Amino acid sequence: MSTKNKILDAAESLFADKGFNGTSLREITSLAEVNLAAVNYHFGSKKELIKAVMSRYMNELSPNLQASLLVICQQETKPTLHEVFSAFIEPLLSLNVFRENGTSNFLQLLGRGYTDSQGFLRWFLTTQYPEVITNFVTAVQRAYPELSAEDIFWRLHFTMGTVIFTMSSSDALMDIAKNDFEQDVDIADVIRKVIPFVASGVGAPLD
Amino acid sequence: MSTKNKILDAAESLFADKGFNGTSLREITSLAEVNLAAVNYHFGSKKELIKAVMSRYMNELSPNLQASLLVICQQETKPTLHEVFSAFIEPLLSLNVFRENGTSNFLQLLGRGYTDSQGFLRWFLTTQYPEVITNFVTAVQRAYPELSAEDIFWRLHFTMGTVIFTMSSSDALMDIAKNDFEQDVDIADVIRKVIPFVASGVGAPLD
DNA sequence: CGTTATTTAAAACGCTTGTTTAAACTGTCA
DNA sequence: TGACAGTTTAAACAAGCGTTTTAAATAACG
Description:
Chains A, B: Keywords: DNA-binding. Chain A has 207 residues and is an all-alpha fold.
């Protein structure tokens, strides 16, 4: 495996675990078993490395998600919100075959990027991958046309909050659930649990 | 105002803005206009300062929230989930009279604590203020008895995710909403928008 | 008033951070 | 073989970090 990929892999799992700010280049290069200077040689800076880690996932996820949402948008019958959100399941879970622990790593990274580094990742996503968001909004609008643009805006951000926050602490939550309820849960179970929640939340009646 | 309080105030707003890891003691003492060494003199360490900032809020919020939830738990008629979550509104908003921007600062700090520093704040809250969680769970159980303990566990964490995540980026979100929809929103509006979402999410039917 | 305790001040501590430098090594092609 | 680009290496860099130390200033009290 190339030095570049060794760095990407190590950075990914450390970033997911401890955040971008909380991970040093020395930890990354030590886990990757490469020289410290290799990061700056191959990526230029830590910030560029973060972008590279995120891009690797987004480039894999984005087309799958686009296709999945397109089906919803183009089907004749009006979709339910549950169907809209379920469109995320397969593309997200397919990240697990893309890379080990891919689904949970990616969602954790997403969460880190939103809270670390003061919204630089929000800028990155909305400028680099705007079509994903557009298609998603369209799908929700088809499912719940009465919802105003403002309400869609807010409820989609609530949804992102739910998902991202849950995933960024999903390891801890799964441990607690295992101890307290003696039930084994994996990331797919968590996704299946969260979908009814957000679908119902977005579909809440307007008073 | 005492040195101690000047430090607490400065630390609070910086922590809320940039996270615990992202804020240095030098930034804090410089904003507070006190000497760098004062933090270690008055609080012992940065970690203890973080605890002190959080405790100041929790000691204010906790009794109000307890009282508000108690009303729900003890009323004769079965509460709706919307009522249960609405019990948070007044205690949370009253933090705004406790301190300027108190509500949003506190919720942002909560969010920081969950994602920064690998769950040390979760430990802090669950061990120092367990009654709040207990009462909340009881209230939800009264409102939706069919929900199993596992499902309550998961959906309450989804709820925390929604609220905390939303609030930790609420400043940015309010700005976007202002630009895109020309509507003025404050923290109270956001809370009023999020309540139907989480109430509906927690109340989602079990399939 | 004098003494003791508390609080501030400035400087330095040792350590970690991201980044850069310059030399050594590796493989490829003429 | 010898030159050359691409990589890797170890060492150093300046800057920032949390914390500690020293001494001076202030407050409290017998």
